[in-house]
């Protein structure tokens, strides 16, 4: 993903049929090629007309949209969020058998939730409890603590560090699961790329500033 304007759609990191049967080909075509592309196009259009913000990074756009001029504020909030959230959504899923957290992420999950099963329950409660369109998130903070959040529309959990997003917009599941958001969550959970997330989390831990040893 480019870090600033003009943004382009990153390719789906696996085949369109790679997440079947939990998430099928038609859903990935619509979700990635149509919905995600539309957020990219809309964000570029907003910035094309406002060159002063073309050097803002994607992360700055999603974090600091409130500082933008009023006529583009809500548009950037929605569309930069849509780009940021979908980029992470597709990258945190993977083909193959269900996996589990490893290393520091496994330790943090046990410490902060009790078990992976309890982390899953918290995440599912957030996914089902988000009224209307939005997201459920596994996030971490500057101290490496894990927690679960939800957000409406295309809002992000920043400045908390998003690790794993579950898209609960109907476009993410309606073709596969119709109105059964809980069944979608269960299918989505099977495809979470825990080895990749475990590497991301370990890298964050290595880069965390530490107090000097006395
Ligand atoms: Mn979506």
Write a compact overview of the structure shown.
The protein is built from 8 helices and 3 strands. With 214 residues, it is mainly α.
Provide a descriptive summary of the structure in words.
The chain has 214 residues and is mainly alpha-helical. The longest helix has 24 residues, at 25-48. Helix content is 49%, strand content 10%. It has 2 domains: 25-91, Helix Hairpins; 103-207, Iron/manganese superoxide dismutase, C-terminal domain (minor pseudopilin epsh fold), CATH 3.55.40.20. A hairpin with a 5-residue loop joins strand 1 and strand 2 (146-152). It has a 3-stranded antiparallel sheet. The chain has 8 helices and 3 strands, in the order H-H-H-H-H-E-E-E-H-H-H. The structure holds manganese (II) ion.
């Amino acid at each position: 993903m480019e870090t600033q304007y003009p943004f382009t759609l990153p390719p789906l990191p696996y085949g369109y049929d790679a997440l079947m049967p939990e998430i099928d080909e038609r859903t990935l075509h619509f979700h990635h090629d149509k919905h995600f592309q539309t957020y990219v196009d809309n964000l570029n259009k907003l910035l094309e007309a406002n060159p002063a913000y073309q050097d803002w990074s994607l992360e700055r756009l999603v974090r600091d949209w409130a500082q933008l001029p009023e006529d583009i504020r809500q548009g950037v909030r929605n569309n930069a969020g849509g780009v940021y959230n979908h980029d992470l959504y597709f990258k945190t899923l993977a083909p193959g058998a269900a996996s589990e957290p490893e290393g520091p992420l496994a330790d943090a999950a046990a410490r902060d939730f009790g078990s992976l099963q309890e982390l899953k329950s918290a995440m599912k409660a957030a996914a089902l409890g988000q009224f209307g369109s939005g997201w459920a998130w596994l996030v971490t903070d500057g101290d490496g603590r894990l927690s679960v959040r939800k957000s409406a529309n295309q809002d992000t959990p920043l400045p908390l560090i998003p690790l794993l997003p579950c898209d609960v917009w109907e476009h993410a599941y309606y073709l596969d699961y119709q109105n059964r958001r809980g069944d979608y969550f269960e299918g989505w959970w099977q495809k979470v790329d825990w080895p990749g997330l475990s590497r991301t989390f370990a890298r964050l831990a290595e880069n965390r500033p530490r107090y000097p040893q006395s």
